[in-house]
Structure formats: structure tokens, C-alpha cells
Amino acid sequence: DLLDGATDEQINMMIYICGKDLKFLLDERIRIYGAASDINEALRIGNSSKFWVRYKVDIALVYGLTPIYCCGEPLEIRETGLHFSYVKSQITRELFHLSETDFSKLVIAYEPIWAIGTGKTATVDEAQEMHAALRNHISKKYGKDVADSISILYGGSCNAANAASIFSQPDVDGGLIGGASLKSTDFLTIAQSFPK
User: Rounded to an integer, what distance in angstroms lies between the CA atom of residue 41 and that of residue 74?
Assistant: First the structure.
């Protein structure tokens, strides 16, 4: 296996040298060798690996890659009403060590864990509220210009039926599309869902 035993720095260097074709291998390595078997599990155990994501973001930036940072809450946190503070604490812990210049290179994806691959999705209002809260949180650290310029995507079971309403919200800049991207007609509908 090409990546067996490779460090994160070596993998990111290979991506930098070889280009996009190797990015798929990085995703495979995380899935196979990471602490979790899938994204739900990786996000669920995220708090026990406080510096794992922070480290990956730093290494990606060193090699000129654009990190897509995913954050989100499990269902039990949302049900207690602590979802805003939970997700803001993820961003504070894992991203707020970055300089304004480096932070501006990120893309953030809000993916409520309870909605990934489940067919459940946040309502349009829930997505907008979280995106607005994240943008406001970023503004307090880096200023309004940075907060307004950074892309914040929605990634919890976004599909052809709900994309237009989600993308119409002022703080939702797009979608991180998973399973719906596997059906070309659905993906085309999603791509055409952005406000004109």
C-alpha cells in the first residue's frame, strides 16, 4: 500500500507534487487508517482528538492546499440546545490559532452529524441560524471583512429537493455534497440551485 506508514506531512507533499489525483488516496487513507471508519464516527470522536484536525489544517496550508474544515454537532447536543456553543467551540479550538491570512484560505462546512447520510437535514432556518452564528463568531476574532469573505457550506444531506431553499439563505455559500453527487441528474439540479 502506497500510503502505509506515510506521515501526514509526506501525504500532503505527495498531493502537492502530484496534484488532484492523489487527493482521493488521502481520503481513502483517512477512511482506512484513521481513528474512525466513517465521517460520522470521525466527527463523533473529534473531541477526544483535540489537535488532530488542527494539525491536518496546518499541514494542508503549508503545502498550499485549501482545507475544507467540517464542523457539526451530534443529535444529543442539538436536543439540549447547546449546538451553537458546541460548534463555535470546535472552530475556536481547531482554527482560531491561525493568522488572518491563513484563516482566509479555508472553506468551512457545517455538517450536523445527525444529518450526514441519514436523509435527515436541518431545516432552512436551522441551517441559516448556524451559518449566521458561525459567521458572527468568526467576525469577533478576525473582523467583518474576513467573516463575510469566507465560504461557509452546508453539508448535511443536501439534495436536489432542498438545495435551492438552503442555498437561498444569506449566510449559506454553497453545499458540500455527498451521496447526492452520485446521481448525475440530482447533482446537476443541485448545481443549478444557486440563486441567480
Answer: 10
pLDDT score, position 54: 82
The contacts of residue 127 (CB under 8 Å, 6+ apart) are 110, 154, 156, 166, 169, 172
The pLDDT score that the predictor gives to residue 42 is 47
Tell me the CA distances in angstroms from 113 to 42, 51, 92, 152, 156, one per residue in order: 10, 19, 18, 16, 7
Q: Using CA atoms, how far apart are residues 55 and 30, in angstroms rounded to an integer?
A: 14
Q: Are 87 and 71 a contacting pair, CB within 8 Å?
A: yes
> How far is Cα 54 from Cα 67, in angstroms, rounded to an integer?
11
Q: Which residues of the chain have pLDDT under 70?
A: 1-51, 117, 119
Question: What pTM value is reported for the model?
Answer: 0.76
For 74, the 3-state DSSP assignment is: coil
Identity at 118, one-letter amino acid code: T
Distance of CA 112 to the CA centre of its chain: 10
Place of cell 458540500: 176
Beta bridge partners of 154: 110, 175
State the Cα–Cα distance between residues 141 and 51, nearest whole angstrom.
20
> Cβ–Cβ contacts within 10 Å for residue 153, how many?
21
Nearest to 90 by CA among 146, 59, 124, 51: 51
Q: Kindly give, in sequence order, each residue whose CB lies less than 8 Å from that of residue 25, ignoring residues fewer than 6 positions away.
A: 2, 3, 11, 14
- How do residues 176-187 score in pLDDT, each as one tens digit? 888 888 888 998
